[in-house]
């Protein structure tokens, strides 16, 4: 009976059709999404429990995410329950988000034990593939481009947080490139690990990715806040600045241990401008209360952008920094309050 209620609550999230009809055993939602208008093409990516396919819906290019229990799963029943919960949560979250820096949700449906989520398709791939390509070419992002891309992510995350959503798995793989003749933009994607800001559930063991995960998430603390996304953003910013994957040479488990027990932090290159280095350090601070909110991060990045436009450097911000550590800390307080 509980299962029936959960599924019925999803009715408002399904687009492009009539209400979902449901039963205590299952729910039939073919009318919620016109399957006759959906064609599925080639598989282009896959995860632990899902595969991504190119597709067409109403003549629009779409990405079709198909989630199902894998054959090698030992406990099929519990795995199905976990995937159903993830599906319901992801559809619930996606249906609330409408922003140019968030992947567009098209619709979703379920057929028996297979779950399907349809979003817009972005052919340029992820920020991860873009950074890997630059690394293979021994090329570096210019500071101006770093700031532009960081602002794209920060604007998206500021919006996501304003809707009461914590992403919990922010990393270059989950940031997609939106490239057209008007702009080179970025969109936040993959909300499979996301949760409501007010949720008090203990972190799922498979939520997030260790290399990008905040210390409090690794510890499995209850009621982790939106500041876990700020920590992950700091590491994304670090990679864009340094051309290095955070904690390269270490396995994800080694990273998790070192971050929690040895207080390991990213080694920011010396050539990184001091204001940018301060921002990365502030985002990756051990204490989540000290990390800025995304609205503050946006303001700081906009200040960086203005300084760079003025004379090609961050000197307008740099000049605020004193060699005295006490004054430097006052600067950090100032930069996140203005």
From TrEMBL:
GO terms for molecular function: ATP binding; protein serine/threonine kinase activity. InterPro entries: Kinase-like_dom_sf, Prot_kinase_dom, Ser-Thr/Tyr_kinase_cat_dom, Ser/Thr_kinase_AS, Ser/Thr_Kinases-Pseudokinases. Transmembrane segments: none annotated. Pfam families: PK_Tyr_Ser-Thr. Residues 38-305 form the Protein kinase domain. This is Protein kinase domain-containing protein. It comes from Saponaria officinalis.
